[in-house]
């Protein structure tokens, strides 16, 4: 946006320090919508360049659940060669900077835990595999004292309805670690989780053992899941992910953090409720385990692995719920207790129920510099995965409709936008440029 002198310019400069102080003061207020001129992405997380929002980003966001909406995402295992170039660029920058360890990629015999090559200890600091219960600094395994972090994996699914009914009845909010391909297959259940206020987090696109994936495959699994959540939730960018099977190591954790700004969440107790349908465990066995955990010490807080994959797994939680309450645990969505200074589950919104991520909630400047990477020329769609938001006027459920313009469901990755985020501009143009831009925004709002 070019700067135009205005008679009120000097007045705005007088108040400019107040604007900056307001920005700083409001960065971590996560329980209400922030004043539009004071909210912005934090400058130091890498996701800022990959997901942005402004009123005219050149991207069309189809109604959730329509064939046109579905056509923008991989039908199953994502092909890394088809992912947006900006994601690959971000990965390459992190690798070149030495921020992604060059650890060996293990193999997984059948459906077993990954095995690293001979001579490579999964418990070593260089690898530190969560599958082998090695804890990486910054990963989350435990909750705050006295808290029960409510969360469920593998949704959305048809069986999720029973869980959402119970949570609504008990006025509870949960973190749903969602599989991207399940969002694609079950948009109605996704929208129900969204509109009922549950917190959305990433559980990869196809649920693989993540340590067995190449760097590019890790990026594709995470990126497309973030993309579909972001596009379908009014523009929200998740902060958290949980690796399938709890399988992460220093390499995978670093990629999630450096490319997408994601924090890894594991667990400190496992119900193994996923195996209820195969006879691997029973409701009685799970209830006995829950009784032991819930009547035990409240330090650390409980982060229990639970699933919404079957009626039985949902019933296991319902059975344990009275014990949670009777033993004095404070129930709270896991994403809201993962960080004691910032309770928001998203990078760019206070919560799920605060309305859409509006254009006026971000300081947006024009940027005519072309992006450094593009998708291959055979990708013809004009949508923008770097923008990846719903329209500025859409709330969390505003895109639930039937589209007469629905296109073929053939997967057609969109082109990159030629604009960078306002955050990138502010961080590179210097405080002088930022001051002029903010001044103009203030004048324009008078």
UniProtKB/TrEMBL annotation:
The record lists the catalysed reaction(s) as: [(1->4)-N-acetyl-beta-D-glucosaminyl](n) + n H2O = chitosan + n acetate
Instruction: Just give the chief location class.
Output: membrane
Top-level EC class as recorded in UniProt: hydrolase
Cite the entry's keywords alphabetically. Carbohydrate metabolism, Cell membrane, Cell wall biogenesis/degradation, Chitin degradation, Cobalt, Glycoprotein, GPI-anchor, Lipoprotein, Membrane, Polysaccharide degradation, Signal
Q: Enumerate the cofactors the protein uses.
A: Co(2+)
Region described as Disordered: spans on this chain: 369-418
In which compartments does the protein localize? Cell membrane
Q: Which residues form the NodB homology domain?
A: 146-332
What SUPFAM superfamilies does the record tag this protein with? Answer: Glycoside hydrolase/deacetylase (SSF88713)
Query: What processes does the entry annotate via GO biological process terms?
Result: cell wall organization; chitin catabolic process; fungal-type cell wall biogenesis; polysaccharide catabolic process
Any one cellular-component term (Gene Ontology): plasma membrane
Record's compositionally biased regions (Polar residues): 399-418
Do you know which InterPro entries this protein is assigned to?
A: Glyco_hydro/deAcase_b/a-brl, NODB_dom, Polysacc_deacetylase_ArnD
What is the membrane topology listed in the Swiss-Prot or TrEMBL record?
A: Lipid-anchor; GPI-anchor
Catalytic activity, EC: 3.5.1.41
Give the Low complexity compositional bias ranges.
372-398
Task: Tell me what this protein is called.
Answer: chitin deacetylase
Provenance organism = Tetrapyrgos nigripes
């Amino acid at each position: 946006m070019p700067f135009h002198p205005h008679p009120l310019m000097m007045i705005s400069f007088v108040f400019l320090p107040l604007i900056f102080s307001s920005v700083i003061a409001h960065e971590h207020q996560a329980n209400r919508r922030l004043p539009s001129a004071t909210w912005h992405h934090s400058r130091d997380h890498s996701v800022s360049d990959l997901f942005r929002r402004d009123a005219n980003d050149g991207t069309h966001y189809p109604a959730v659940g329509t064939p046109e909406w579905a056509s923008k995402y991989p039908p199953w295992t994502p092909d890394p060669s088809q992912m947006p170039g900006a994601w690959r660029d971000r990965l390459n920058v992190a690798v070149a900077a030495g921020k992604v360890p060059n650890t060996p990629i293990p193999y997984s015999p059948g459906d077993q835990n990954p095995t690293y090559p001979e001579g490579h200890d999964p418990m070593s600091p260089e690898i530190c595999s969560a599958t082998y219960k090695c804890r990486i600094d910054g990963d989350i395994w435990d909750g705050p004292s006295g808290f029960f972090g409510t969360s469920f994996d593998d949704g959305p699914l048809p069986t999720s309805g029973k869980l959402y009914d119970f949570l609504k009845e008990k006025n509870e909010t949960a973190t749903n670690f969602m599989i991207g391909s399940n969002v694609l297959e079950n948009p109605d259940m996704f929208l129900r989780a969204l509109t009922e206020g549950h917190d959305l987090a990433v559980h990869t696109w196809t649920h693989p053992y993540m340590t067995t994936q190449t760097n590019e495959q890790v990026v594709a699994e995470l990126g497309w899941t973030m993309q579909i959540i972001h596009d379908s939730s009014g523009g929200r960018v998740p902060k958290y992910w949980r690796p399938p099977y709890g399988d992460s190591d220093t390499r995978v954790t670093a990629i999630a953090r450096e490319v997408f700004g994601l924090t890894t969440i594991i667990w400190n107790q496992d119900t193994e409720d996923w195996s209820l349908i195969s006879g691997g465990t029973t409701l009685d066995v799970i209830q006995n385990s829950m009784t032991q955990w819930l009547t035990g010490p409240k330090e650390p807080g409980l982060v229990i692995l639970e699933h919404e994959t079957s009626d039985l797994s949902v019933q296991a939680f319902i059975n344990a719920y009275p014990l949670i309450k009777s033993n004095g645990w404070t129930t709270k969505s896991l994403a809201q207790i993962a960080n004691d200074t910032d309770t928001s589950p998203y990078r760019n919104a206070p919560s799920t129920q605060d309305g859409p991520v509006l254009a006026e909630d971000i300081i947006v400047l024009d940027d005519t510099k072309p992006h450094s990477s593009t998708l291959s020329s055979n990708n013809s769609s004009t949508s923008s995965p770097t923008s990846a938001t719903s329209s500025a006027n859409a709330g969390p459920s505003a895109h639930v409709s039937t589209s007469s313009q629905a296109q073929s469901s053939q997967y057609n990755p969109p082109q990159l936008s030629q604009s960078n985020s306002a955050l990138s501009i502010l961080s590179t143009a210097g405080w002088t440029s930022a001051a002029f831009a903010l001044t103009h925004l203030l004048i324009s709002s008078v």
